[in-house]
Amino acid sequence: MAAALDGAPVLHLDDIATHEELFAWTERLLRDVIQPLGRGEVAHYRPYNWRARSFGPACALPPAPVVLVEGVGAGRRVLRPHLARLVWMELTHEEAWTRGRVRDGEEQHTFWAEWVEAERRHFAGDPSRPFADLLVRQGTMGYEVLPGPAGTSGPDQDLTDSDGSSAAS
Question: What architecture (CATH level 2) is domain 3-147?
């Protein structure tokens, strides 16, 4: 996607989250990245090293017409007002977790047991998929991009003024 957008910079939320803050990183992301970019300034953040369990040296993220924020939690309620579009990668939980386990290897086995439960709690309290503008599904020959459910209400979701559409709109 970054290449299709003329080399748009990508911020990986794996660089923002930590073992101790699997989903409690929102204030740091807003302060260090979203707010400076919103002012047209260079953002600075310290990527987290999952193996060393510590933050690395600061990285600069320059403002750009499009900055991609990638990872679980990118579509959370507090971040949605700052997003131009929310794209949801349509994978089963098991498929996503298997990809992560393969990527991280046996060394991170304990982490993944904790992650699965933390992710379930996160999406139970703050679902992202219902607000996605686009859904992406991986096929055998590439990706399929479909309209997302954003702006529509279904039996398992309520929309409020702060979340998007409302009956008054």
Answer: 3-Layer(aba) Sandwich (3.40)
